[in-house]
Each structure stands twice: as structure tokens, then as C-alpha cells.
Fold each of these.
Amino acid sequence: SSELTQDPAVSVALGQTVRITCQGDSLRTYFASWYQQKPGQAPVLVVYGADNRPSGIPARFSASKSGDIASLTITGAQADDEGDYYCITRDTSTSHAALGGGTKLTVL
Amino acid sequence: QVHLVESGGGVVQPGTSLRLSCATSGYIFGNHGLHWVRQAPGKGLEWVSLIWYDGSRKYYAEPVKGRFTISRDESEKAVYLQMDDLRVEDTAMYYCARDDSSGYYGLDVWGQGTTVTVSS
């Protein structure tokens, strides 16, 4: 089961800004990391920590956190950003990894 | 360049066993823990297990606790997932992913996965 809650689906018009959220008690203590997954491919880390991007990830991806909610923002969404997005953090009670159920992003 | 390569998947009957391997390269093996994450067909990601960078701690998701065992071999730079008493619901793509050592479980490098099918 997922200990982090994400909206199942979100859509955004091409070039507009979209925010994907992730809610869970463990986020009061730990940052979330965010992953993009396209059909038939392994997940890819896109943002981690306070707001860090791995090499090769476009600057339009950013992250923030407030209380028990972490957010991934895509500023100026592109068609290539379509896919499933997952958040992950460390569970404060068990030290297991807690995962969100995933958000399917559609770029219109 | 950091690489993770999973192997060992296959088609098996319920109640049997499989051992998955995750071969690593391109980084200092002893500096990072490794996770196993699975994805059933058409479903979301599900975390399975974690072994710390030094092997001192191991964690398991409730659905696999008591049936799966994670281990590591420093000399082979590999992590293994021994899966016993497999069930139909264990059918999934299994990914290994490197922990970034941040403390909050950033999984910064993923393998391409190996498929496990449990069917009678």
C-alpha cells in the first residue's frame, strides 16, 4: 500500500504550469524525491531534496515542501513531460520507503 | 557511468523460489544502499526491500516479509533478492535502484528491470 497520497491524474495545456502534489506525515520530517516514468521504461529521478535536479533534467522541473505536502512543479510543460510521476520518501516510523500511488500527467 | 543490471527473472509456479541479482558498476559499491521496487502489470510502483550501504540494516515491505531476503556481496558488487514461496500477486517487473545516501531515500539510478511471472 502507498503511504503517500497523490492525485491519480492531472492535465495541463502545452506551455502552461502544473503542480503535482504528494501528501503524507513523513514529509513533515523528510524531503520527497520525484520520478518520471514513461510507458515501458524504468522510472527516472527528476527532482530530489529541497529542490535539486540530476544532471540532464530540465530546469522547468522544480520541487517544494510545506508541512506534510510536497510538490513537483513543471513550468512550461512540454509534450515530452507526459507520463506517470511518483513521489518517494522515508517513512519516519518504519524506515521503509513510502511511495505515492502515482499521478498520470497529460499535456493537452 | 553508474549502471545497474537486473537478472534472474522468469516464469515460475506458485510456491517456488527465484533469486534476482542486481549487478552494479561505475561507483563505490560500499557507499550506497540498494532498493528493490516492483511494478505489477498496469499498476503503480511498490517498494519491496532495502539494504543499507554496509549491509547492517535490511527492511522489507509487509507483503514480502518472511518470504523475501535481501543480501549483498561486496566482492561481486551485487545485491540479491531471494524470493521464496512465490505467489501470483508477486508477478511484476522488479527494479533495483541505488539509494543516494541522502537519508530520505532518493533513488538516483535505476536498472531496466527483470520480469517475474508467477502462474500455475
Amino acid sequence: QQKVQQSPESLTVSEGAMASLNCTFSDGTSNNFRWYRQHSAKGLEVLVSIFSDGEKEEGRFTAHLNRANLHVSLHIREPQPSDSAVYLCAGNSAGNKLTFGIGTRVLVRP
Amino acid sequence: DPKIIQKPKYLVAVTGSEKILICEQYLGHNAMYWYRQSAKKPLEFMFSYSYQKLMDNQTASSRFQPQSSKKNHLDLQITALKPDDSATYFCASSQETGRGERLFFGHGTKLSVL
């Protein structure tokens, strides 16, 4: 079964500074990749979906995919305190089944 | 307004009892899913349904039984509850089960088994 490693475990950034999160997959099972955000006691909000090697931007969120290295990253441009949340990466395999990492807890200080 | 409604939001149960977690989606989707998030573990796929039929089951225990009475409903019955079943259970839906279909998640039901 595919495993997903997320780093760092937690991240504190100042408002306006770039935040960078990483995700490495154990194998090439996943066909496409997603970044989700989870605020406490709320559902998951999809931020970016990426299907091809390279970069995909959605507003202030940019995902980078390198299939050869089984690596996906997320960059948050000009983070705001409201961006404080747990960020989850997920790989999507057959049957639209998502395999998640354990998450990176991001705190944005004013 | 939330388009995927999960009820209840919080649930406390005693060991050995049975509970049903409710999920309704108003997105007109044909595929529905259950995921579980236990403490200090990744969100984990449990079941997927398409057009009210079971597509995939990654849950080892038969104590977990999805029930689809209507196209936009996928409830989760859990019998003989154990403390290890304590987790937040998320329902999700997508238009179809093809790869690449965007999944929408509900807010979850947090289950505590004492």
C-alpha cells in the first residue's frame, strides 16, 4: 500500500513570507495529486490539483510535481493568519481513491 | 451552505454498541465515499460507492457496513464498537469514480467510543 511522507511536521511563518511544504510518495501508484487544507472541526478544502510534471497555480497556492522523484510540493505565497491550518497532500489512484499524508500544521503569525 | 451534510457532528458511544453515521450530499454526484481520520494517523480510505453500488472496500472489518438507501445518501453503520474505532469519519462525493474527479468532503462526524 502506498505511503505518503509529508514534511515538515509543523511550520511557523510570518504573514507575507513564503511557506513551502513537501510530500514524497513511496511508489508511482498515484496518477494525480491534490493539496487539501483542513481547519479545525471543518471539512477538507481542496487547494490545488496537479496532473502533470511541472507547476500548477491556483491563486496564492502553487503545486510542483516531479514524478521521477515521487515528489509534490506546495508553496503558499503571501500567507495570512487565516491560512493557519493543517495541509494534507494526497495521491489519487484508480477508483478515485485518495492516499493521504499525515499533514503539515502551518501557523501564520501576524 | 454545506453541500455534504454529516450527522451527527459529535457522537459518544459505549464499547459494544452500534451507531449509524449519516451522510447526504446535494451536489448531484454519483459517487460517494467514507474516509476515517484517527489520532496521529493519515486520513484513510474506507469505502467507495458508485450509483449506489459498492466499488471498493479497504476496511478489514465487517463491523463497518455502508448503507445507501438513496442515490445521495451513504450512511455508515458500525457494530460492536471498540475504543479503537474512535476517529473522525468523513463522507465525500465526486461526480464519478474516475481518476482525477474532484472529491468534496463533509465536515466529519467525530466518534468517541468509551
